[in-house]
Amino acid sequence: MIHDCKQLSLQLNNPQLSPIMNITRLIPLAATAAIIATSCGQKSDSSVNYTGNMPVVAQKVAVGADSVTVIDMSASEDINLIKASDLIDGLEIVKLENSDEAIVGEGAVWASDNRIIVYTEGAMKQFDRKGKYLGTVGARGQGPGEYLTVYDIDIDEKAGKIYLAEYNASKIHVYSTDGTFLNDIPLAQQARKCRIRVDNAAGKITVFAMQFTDDEGAFNAWEQDFDGNVLSKVQKPQLSVYPDFSNEIYASMATEPMEMMIFQYGTDGDSIYAYIDGDMRPVMTPKFEGKVPMHSNFSTPRFYALILYGTPEQKGEYSFVFPDATPFIVDKKTLKGSYANLILDPIGSIVVNDWLLYRNPDYFIMSLDPGTLSELIEKAPQEHEFVSKEAIERMNALKESIDVDDNNYIILGRWKK
After folding, report:
1. pLDDT at 319
2. What is the CA radius of gyration of the chain?
3. What letter would DSSP give residue 74?
4. Among residues 296, 336, 249, 247, which one has the least CA distance to residue 26?
5. Order of strands across the sheet with 279-286?
6. Where in 16-77 does DSSP place strands (E)?
7. Which end of the chain is more exposed for a tag (fewer CB within 10 A), N or C?
8. What pTM does this model have?
């Protein structure tokens, strides 16, 4: 049984073994902040509404006992416009409190039913879903419960806890939802970067880890209890990356089973893997012609997405910015897809082309400063077949209320299932 991406790619590239369509370039995303638009009760009856006029661009290929979705981006060169209300539930704009202690800049954003957490300038600041400032989570430092970096968090509203994993994590910090440090949970193995999902009811933690090639015996994924005992683990050296913290690991915690993907800066990581029965199995992969472009993959319960990166532009000594990248999306049921821009129809006629840079395991999230939001509204059309007059009126009223000295605005909503 083949569960390895590179073995699968070899099989797909051999015309004697697989009559697969040409699958060209795929796309990577280095997402930092995420914000989602609310669908205001508008829901599709099925997952195919948004791809009705798109061609079939993928095939399901049997590989041993597994089925892998193989995507051919050359099957469609069109750029379609899709509605946020077809992909996202509860899209809304949240204006963050504007007090001195609440101000945030650029940073990673997480959300739950009742709160928004922004990691900005070394502090974890949290707000309720109305934008009211609730205080910080923990503090920067090297003492008990303090952190120097933040890579991922998980919020458990029922348990009243927030879980935080740093870079090079050997433990998970646990805080109450008021931000007070409670305790640490030891990780079964150190992780260079990791995505975590805590299941209090089952008493277990799922960890997807980005490990380096020189980390001997490293786990790439595992389940453990709260004492650090391993319940199941996956060791796949081919999923480890060259020692470089520019590489990233992403996870789709809202999918069933949970999925992970590795972004390797400038190299050829290309598959999405699902954590099934204690194994990581490829569930989506592209086929490239010639040199593999730098790319990233993403998965929600409803669709796969691929993002190709152009040449990054250096902005600082250690910082680079990628050009805008319109994602290529594929419906998981119909296998229809194309390049697609997103119109935030529940909140107006704002169109976003790099919308999957703003991604999160459960939510679509954008964090916008007042100037950027004003510019997006200024460019938005005043009439559109996908958007009601009422939504455009609300959008225009919002623009009139924006002050350049406002705190950030968060647009967010849950990925539809």
Report:
1. 65
2. 21
3. G
4. 296
5. 58-63, 66-71, 279-286, 272-276, 259-263, 248-252
6. 58-63, 66-71
7. N
8. 0.84
